[in-house]
């Protein structure tokens, strides 16, 4: 069995690391180059013990066409039996389209999520990938139900979520090895963590300014690791320094996991960090009009804060409470094993 795994962005490195541990002799790892910053890419490979890419491409996420062509050429040379893609990024869509064109069996991990907002690139990336996939590995029962409603052709498997695998596997070593709390003198101080990176926010200077201004109104310092695009956009605002907001460079996984774990609350427009917040039992406030992780909102660990509700943000955050119930929404940390066993079984039948 020959497997080609396509990765290109931070969340995919974490997910692929858990599966790749069990596929080393079968797998060719292909990095599209989507996250080109060393802090967004290289350090994750070393910390997660993810093998270095067997194939390194150099395609940014704003050049989907060349990414598809590059992956087609790579698949044509490798002739894999199965292609694996993760999540909802440009790399995922490119891998799915290239595999489909070459009629290669496709496994989409983290299938079935829907924000129902087609203006988001992530939404059509995952919708297209789901409908092209041979196997759809769903993180939750609800995501599997959604695919059934859409009458997709591929097999639907509820696998649980690989981010749970990663958090459970790496949390102890992260808390032991990371020094970020000491570096910022945070061991005994309350603080929040925020992330902003989505194009619809970052590319609109006025909206970005609005969100930063509202984060500035919170009662504790807000540590904001900056995606390179976010950093550039903030620099172009040419605003006075913020005293509550503490901008950080992109963080290695262990530092980010530690920073999130000790925070009072997390404010984010990221899909993956909503999930990490839930796994770490930290209250989350999602700064978007919608979310694909509906279950976290239903359990009240996640609060959706739409743009019109931003003036209420200080009150919402200050009144936060940790719910007493914390159901297992995303599996028990064995998603990688289920995915690998399923692919091996399916391949043996072919």
UniProtKB/TrEMBL annotation:
Keywords: Isomerase. Coiled coil: none annotated. The keyword rRNA processing does not apply. It comes from the Bacteria. Signal peptide: none annotated. Residues 26-344 form the UDP-N-acetylglucosamine 2-epimerase domain. NCBIfam families: wecB. Belongs to the UDP-N-acetylglucosamine 2-epimerase family. This is UDP-N-acetylglucosamine 2-epimerase. It comes from Geomicrobium sediminis.
């Amino acid at each position: 069995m020959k497997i080609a795994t396509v990765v290109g962005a931070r969340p995919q490195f974490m997910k692929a690391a858990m599966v790749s541990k069990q596929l080393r002799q079968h797998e060719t790892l292909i990095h599209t180059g989507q996250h080109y910053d060393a802090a967004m890419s290289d350090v994750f490979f070393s910390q997660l013990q993810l093998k270095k890419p067997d194939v390194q491409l150099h395609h940014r996420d704003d050049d989907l066409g060349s990414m598809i062509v590059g992956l087609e050429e790579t698949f044509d040379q490798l002739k894999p039996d199965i292609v694996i893609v993760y999540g909802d990024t440009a790399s995922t869509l490119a891998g799915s389209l290239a595999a489909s064109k070459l009629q290669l069996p496709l496994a989409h991990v983290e299938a079935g999520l829907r924000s129902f907002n087609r203006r988001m690139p992530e939404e059509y990336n995952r919708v297209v990938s789901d409908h092209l996939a041979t196997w759809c590995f769903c993180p939750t029962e609800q995501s599997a139900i959604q695919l059934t409603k859409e009458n997709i052709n591929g097999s639907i498997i509820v696998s649980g979520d690989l981010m749970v695998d990663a958090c459970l596997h790496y949390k102890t070593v992260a808390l032991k090895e990371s020094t970020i709390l000491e570096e910022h003198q945070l061991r005994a101080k309350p603080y929040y963590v925020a992330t902003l990176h989505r194009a619809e926010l970052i590319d609109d200077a006025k909206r970005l300014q609005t969100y930063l201004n509202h984060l500035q109104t919170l009662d504790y310092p807000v540590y904001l690791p900056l995606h390179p695009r976010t950093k550039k956009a903030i620099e172009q605002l040419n605003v006075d320094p913020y005293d509550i907001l503490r901008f950080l460079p992109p963080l290695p996984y262990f530092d980010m996991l530690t920073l999130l774990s000790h925070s009072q609350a997390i404010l984010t427009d990221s899909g993956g960090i909503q999930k990490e917040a839930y796994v770490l039992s930290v209250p989350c406030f999602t700064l978007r009009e919608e979310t694909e992780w509906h279950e976290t909102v239903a359990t009240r660990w996640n609060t959706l804060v739409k743009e019109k509700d931003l003036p209420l943000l200080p009150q919402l955050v200050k009144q936060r409470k940790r719910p007493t119930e914390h159901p297992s929404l995303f599996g028990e940390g064995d998603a990688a094993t289920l995915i690998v066993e399923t692919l091996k079984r399916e391949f043996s039948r072919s």
